[in-house]
Amino acid sequence: MSSPSLALAPAAVNSGRSEFESAVANQIAAFPTARLVKRVVDGNVTIGHFHGILTTLFHQTYSGPYTFAKAAVNCSWQHEVAKEYLLSHAEEERTHWRWVLDDLSATGYQGADPRSQLPHYTCEAFISFQGRVAEQMPVARLAIASVLEGIGSAFGGSYGRQLLQRLNLRPNQASFFLSHGETDKVHAQELTDVIAGCQLTPEEWGWMVHAANVAGRFYRGMYDHEAFA
After folding, report:
1. Which partner from 5, 21, 54, 149 sits 20 to 30 angstroms from 178, CA to CA?
2. Contact criterion met (CB below 8 Å) for 35 and 44
3. Is CATH 1.20.910.10 what the domain over 32-228 is classified as, yes or no?
4. How far is CA 165 from the centre of its chain?
5. Quick one: average pLDDT of 83-95?
6. DSSP-derived 3-state class of residue 77
7. What residue ranges do the domains of the chain occupy?
8. Half-sphere exposure of 143 (CA within 13 A, CB side)
């Protein structure tokens, strides 16, 4: 006769998966509430706001890929499919920070090189959380990615095109958002497939839910800080 804890495990796992999927969907749905997004939709965005979000996001693009790699190193071989995806995704994302610098240069940015600056506090919180997850529950780095890729897939192309229109930009001047609007659609599906291939415990699902919720709030915060009020 199986023990009560073992008998309850399948239900707990299914509940964890459902909670995770709901958390990701809720965080994606909440993204349009950010101040900068509202400015884009309402037509009140300026080139200064555009430069502001690029410099805010820069250190996420600069540091984020290495938290994928760190998570891959720390991830158990029990989750082989996750371990391998984390490493390959780190390599794929590794140079996307150059898109930020390219867009800044192409739109006449005259400020300091973001590489010489410390991260904005909203970005610092986000990349620090990524590092913590990569150390303590590396498989949950996939949860953070699920939220970001989901946001990019859902909104990147649309908001990118609105930026072009509002600011009279050419596509090569907003490559960061336009490119992610396309690549994130592929990545979102890849993440769904990878996570489906992982046999996660209730504790791990708990971390997945936590990581998705915190990541959504922290990422949205980068589009919602005082520079966009």
Report:
1. 21
2. no
3. yes
4. 25
5. 96
6. helix
7. 32-228
8. 32
